[in-house]
Amino acid sequence: MRAGRRDVEITHPRKVLFPDDGIAKSDLAAYYRDVAERMVPLVRDRPVSLQRFNAGIGREGFFQKNVAKGVPPWVKRVEVPKKGGSLWHVLANDAATLVWLANQNAITPHVWLSRADRLDRPDRMIFDLDPPDDGKFALVRRTARELGDVLREAGVEPFAMTTGSKGVHVVVPLRRRYGFDRVREAAVAVAERLIERRPRELTMEFYKRKRDGRLFVDVNRNGYAATAVPPYAVRARPGAPVATPLHWDELSDRRLTAQRWTLRTVLDRDPDVWKDIGRAAGSLPRV
């Protein structure tokens, strides 16, 4: 498959990865090739963890962080230190790499909140709004809008994205001035301010059994080496839903769901959504 300036081999291109939808590996690779122009600027230089499904989504998948062997020389990687050694993470910096990852049956890439040259300085703060069940997406939309109000009052600009799974991510772009501890502290303060408004509907309680049907405002992705699903990533669910950047006013659309757009439909959307997210980077929310 031609991707950018390279030809990338697709082995077993007819292998079906989404059995209920007839979506094969070649379809996944073609999608990532076609979406690369939008996706790469939003994931460039971020260490990637791979969520792979070698037998398709009908079987259990696995996560792979370390990609040390069998990598084409043109695939960029970064060595990340860990206790007792190091890991090699792929950097999804071009269309060819996204296609190569698809050939590894990596349906969903998950990326760091920091970039390879300054791993300890995130440039994203993420709030994951996780509903108690699939029938509560109206609560997700309302909570995302209220969280946006809290963030604007705190002097920062929020961006929203459906996750392609159950909820919405609200993302704050940051200048790379702060370590993960400070970013998480600020995220906790914002979440507490939000939950004060509706404590019967919202919680930061990690354990599901203690949430009592409340929406989980998850700030736990704001940690070193934690990952999040990036814009335009395909999710391993029937229909191949896609994590999709939103215009903010789309949060008021009653038709909106976490899985509204799929591999087959998302490319029909405005390609410039989130185009200015980098220019909006600023200081931590002032709460």
List keywords for this structure.
six-stranded mixed sheet, six-stranded antiparallel sheet, 287 residues, globular, alpha+beta, DNA primase, PRIM domain
Describe this structure in words.
With 287 residues, the protein is an alpha+beta fold. The chain folds into two domains: 2-112, DNA primase, PRIM domain; 118-287, DNA primase, PRIM domain (Alpha-Beta Complex). It is 22% helix and 23% strand. Strands 5, 6, 7, 8, 9 and 15 form a six-stranded antiparallel beta sheet that branches. The protein has a six-stranded mixed beta sheet with strand order 13-14-10-12-11-16. Strand 3 and strand 4 form a beta hairpin. Helix 1 packs across helix 2 (95-103) and helix 3 crosses helix 4 (180-197).
Q: What is the overall shape?
A: globular
The CATH C-level name of the largest domain is: Alpha Beta
Mean pLDDT level? 97
Q: What's the Cα radius of gyration? A: 19 Å
What composes the largest sheet?
6 strands, antiparallel
- Given helix and strand content, the structural type is alpha+beta
Number of E-state strands: 16
Please identify which CATH superfamily of the largest domain we are dealing with: DNA primase, PRIM domain
Counting DSSP H or I runs of 4 or more residues, the number of helices is 4
- Regarding quaternary structure, how should these chains be classified? single chain
Order of helices and strands: EEEEHEEEEHEEHEEHEEEE
Query: How much strand content do the residues show?
Result: 15-25%
CATH topology grouping of the largest domain:
DNA primase, PRIM domain
Q: In the residues, how many domains can be counted?
A: 2
